[in-house]
Each structure stands twice: as structure tokens, then as C-alpha cells.
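Appendix B. Raw example, untouched.
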Amino acid sequence: MKLAEALALRSSVNHKILQLRERIVANARHQEGEEPPENAVALLDELSFTLDEFERLIRNINRTNAQTVLGDGTITDALARRDVLRLRHGAITDAANAGSGRQEHGYGRQLRSELVHVSAVPVAELRSTADDLARRIREVDTAIQRLNWEVDLLE
């Protein structure tokens, strides 16, 4: 199985876990003399089995990410780099938006006597930096995705 397939399976199994939890909660109590639509104990058993499968997938994915070389590090290193780039991009974009007044609601200044707001940050420079960060995020993400379809999952 390729790493990308395991990642898709992990997502599917995670969704199944969430659904099982909802079904267990919905069937955990019922009125005396009536039968619940589903057996909550059987659902708990299925949840336990599914969680074991989920743990196995996570371990194998993490093992594969930690041992697969990508650029000057591993996939794990690239994932960390991408996550921090996303955080940096979000912060820079928020700062640029705040500096340009995009966060403000209303009509802006109506009269000459009203207060004038000026930017305390270099908005154009921040937007340029955000664009560069977005490009770098795409590059790292593309490299990760490409390798995910090339690498076999370690067991």
C-alpha cells in the first residue's frame, strides 16, 4: 500500500470512529420495554476494533514519514515546515489585513473631524511576504503529495 492510500484510509477510519461514537451515544439509553435501534454493546466492540486499526495505521504512517527522505530531511520534517509556514502565513496575512483596515466594519471616516487611522505595519511588504509564503507552502505540499504516491507504507 502506498503512503497516500494509507492517509486516505486513515481519514476514512477516523470518520467511521466519529460515526460509531455518535451511534453509541444515540443507543446507550432507551425506554424500558423498547429495544434500541442498534445494540450499543456491539457498537462498542466495533469501535474498539476500529480504534485498534486506526492506531496501527497511525503508527505505520508515522514510521514511514520519519524514515522517508525528502529534500534535506524527512517527510516528518517537511510536514513540520509546512505547518509552521501556514502559521506564519496566517499571522502575516492577519497583520496586513489589520494594517489596511480590512478588519474594520462600517463606512470609514465620514467627517474631517473624525479620527484618522494610519497603518503601523508595512502592508504592501507584508502582502508580498504572504505571497512568498503561500508559494513556499504550495511547493512543500506538492513535494509531500508527490512522495506520498511513490513511497510504500512501512509495516
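End of appendix B.
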